[in-house]
Design a protein that fits this description.
Structural class: alpha/beta
Number of strands: 5
Helix content: 25-40%
Shape: globular
Distance between the termini: 38 Å
Low-confidence stretches: none
Largest sheet: 3 strands, parallel
């Protein structure tokens, strides 16, 4: 299983959009634009795409609504399937694994994975002038149990990894530092 992915699959295109406060766009528009750019980057036509996966942002502090098959419909993609995947900060990884399964089963030749969020824009638009805004709804279940950030939801997994593999907090910290250093080199990054 270790070599299952080697030389069998390829990410052939990448599409991205602007990030940050973008009041002229909603999440569906951003996701469709990123998907269109990925198809173009791959040198494919929309008619080549026969599978689509939508990544959901589904942490305990916020839940993105299901957009159903928004970007395949917007782009007119003739997909055989549309699949929603969500799990905190890991939908991209799950989406890649799921896409390879669909390819293995012969359900698709090209699978496009889409994700976009307009959370920052919506947050700024709903925030009271001069104050802060906090979500208070049935979606905010983590706060009831003391959750206040992504770290709350992932601490259990990190502690288990540290126990099993003797991983140190410095090693985990180096991942965050490295990601921020790379983002600092990208003019399109939200916190460039």
């Amino acid at each position: 299983m270790k070599n299952h992915f080697r030389r069998r699959y390829a990410i052939v295109g990448l599409g991205k959009t602007k990030t940050g406060y973008l009041p002229q766009y909603n999440g569906r528009m951003l996701e469709a634009e990123a998907a269109r750019a990925a198809i173009e980057d791959a040198g494919l036509k929309p008619s080549d795409i026969d599978g689509a996966i939508h990544c959901l942002r589904m942490g305990g502090l916020q839940v993105q609504s299901l957009w159903r098959d928004a970007f395949p419909r917007i782009l007119g993609l003739p997909v055989n399937f549309f699949f929603n995947i969500g799990r905190g900060g890991a939908p991209a990884t799950f989406a890649l694994v799921t896409a390879t399964r669909f390819l293995d089963m012969g359900l698709a030749n090209y699978v496009i994975i889409g994700f976009a969020t307009d959370a920052l824009t919506r947050w700024r638009q709903r925030r009271p002038e001069g104050g802060s805004y906090q979500i208070r709804s049935e979606e905010d279940w983590a706060r009831l149990f003391g959750g206040s950030a992504a770290a709350s939801g992932h601490a259990f997994f990190a502690a288990r990894h540290m126990h099993e593999y003797a991983t140190t907090s410095r090693q985990f910290g180096s991942v965050a530092v490295s990601e921020r250093q790379w983002a600092g080199l990208n003019p399109d990054a939200q916190m460039y």
